[in-house]
Design a protein that fits this description.
single chain; 94 residues; mainly alpha
Amino acid sequence: MRDILAMSMKRLTPSLITIVLSLVLALFTAALTYSAPSEARTNGTAGDFFMQTTPTPQTEDRSVIGSTDQIIIMGGVISAIIIIPILASRKSWH
């Protein structure tokens, strides 16, 4: 009975470590991205509605139609660089 339990624990240990590390990473990431509301926003008064802001000056729009084409092509090239060697090595497994 002990041998069966020891063997099952050896199989579960890497999975448990992966799950625990993933949860820690997820919680750490959530803690870093969380921003609590400031006190000024939660204790708003009627006078806050009359506050005028200075408009942000608009910059010239320099975007070019189709400018993301090169990004998509580079994504395809990078994917091919990664996938082709994996597929080539899988054929040698059989």
